[in-house]
Amino acid sequence: MASSVVSALFGSYDLRNAKQWRDEDILHREQEIQWLNDDVVRAHEWRNADIERYLRKEKLENEHLVCAARADQLATISEQCTLLCGFTVASMVNLNFPEELSRFVLALYAVSASIVCVSLLLCTLLSSMLLLAVTRYASSQLELDIKRMDLSELEIHAPFTVWWLKKCDVEHRTAMKLMLIGVTLFFQYLGTLAWVQFIHYRAASITISSLSGIGFLFWQVRVASRWRYLLTPPASSSTFKSTSYLRDCNGYSSVRSSIYSGRLPSTIPFTKKFWGPMQSPATNAEPLKSVSSSSRHKNKAVCKASVYEELKSPNHDRI
Questions:
Q1: Taking the model in full, what pTM does it have?
Q2: Neighbours of 243 (CB within 10 A)
Q3: How many whole angstroms separate alpha carbon 301 and alpha carbon 35?
Q4: In Å, what is the CA distance from 135 to each residue of 82, 148, 248?
């Protein structure tokens, strides 16, 4: 009788210990599942941060390339206008006017030379100011504008293009028109210069004037008429959409697609599947619940009911 009572006591004690150990084991497994969920969420957030950092870096490099191309264009225009203006001024200074020169030819020469010098000089000054503005924007404001953009806007909007159309496009078209005026009158200036410099050599004057006329016709027919659309203003303001920091330009042809195709890591799928990893893991897999490291032992794990049933089943210990 006493032995059976002792056996029953020890059996109940062992059963109670086994139940307590099993409950503790289940809680520990739940915490392991929670830690795994937290690690997955944290890795997902880190990957999203790396992708965002990579995209913003590529966008900044692309915008710097556009700024550099625009700066080279302005520098080239300024150099060409300076060259023509310097040639005109040097000819005016070093030219000796004969006494028998016609007043009409002299007046035509003076007017054409003055207009050429003034228009080309103004074009040079405008191009220089625009070059300074582009350099200042690229060095101080461009990176800030890219940081303010949403991740979904990086492939659509172009901060430098929007800034250029808003701040510098009118001045740039004005400079181009002044350059066209100066180049057009430069042919007339050459033709008039021939009758001033070679007044005693009619054949030379006629030859130079004829070549100047041919050059003027070629300029108007083959060059100026073909590229005159560059002087037209951009699309209407309805194509611009306002955002929180600037007015964005739709239809911007981004060149970053080719950059991504060569530089984007193979682990990051580009095209329509690119934004899939940027979504929450809950949309692609089982629901996960992120918790901080300080509250790991307070929150329950996020797991399906079938997993809990498997953990609580007696057959689980036999695995």
A1: 0.64
A2: 14
A3: 8
A4: 20, 20, 21
Residue type for 134, please? V
- Quickly list DSSP for 232-244: S--S-GGGEEE-S
| Residue 197: count of CB within 10 angstroms of its CB | 18
Paired strand residues for 242: 247
Read off the tokens for 190.
Answer: 């050459």
Q: So what's the pLDDT on residue 319?
A: 41
Return the sign of the alpha-carbon dihedral for residues 88, 92, 98, 104: positive
User: From the centroid of its chain, how far is CA 195?
Assistant: 53
What tens digit of pLDDT does each residue of 156-169 get?
889 999 999 999 99
Which residue do the tokens 């007046």 mark? 107
Pairing of strands 247-249, 240-242: antiparallel
Query: DSSP characters for 53-74?
Result: HHHHHHHHHHHHHHHHHHHHHH
List the end-to-end C-alpha distance of the chain, in Å, as a whole number.
Answer: 39
> For residues 30 and 296, is the Cβ–Cβ distance under 8 A?
no
DSSP string, 101-114: --HHHHHHHHHHHH
Query: Residue 150 burial by CB count (10 A; 0-12/13-18/19+): exposed, middle or buried?
Result: exposed
Please classify residue 184 by burial: count the beta carbons closer than 10 Å to its beta carbon, then call 0-12 exposed, 13-18 middle and 19+ buried: middle
Residue 27 CA to residue 82 CA, distance in Å, equals 82
Q: Answer yes or no: are the C-beta atoms of 71 and 139 closer than 8 Å.
A: no
Q: Which two tokens stand for residue 60?
A: 């900044």
Structure tokens at 72: 């080279």
Tokens representing residue 170 in the block: 């009118």
Q: What is the pLDDT of residues 132-158, one digit of tens each?
A: 999 999 998 999 999 898 888 888 889
Residue 177 to residue 110: CA distance in whole angstroms: 21
At which residue do the structure tokens 């220089």 appear? 128
Q: How far is CA 30 from CA 17, 250, 295, in A?
A: 20, 50, 14
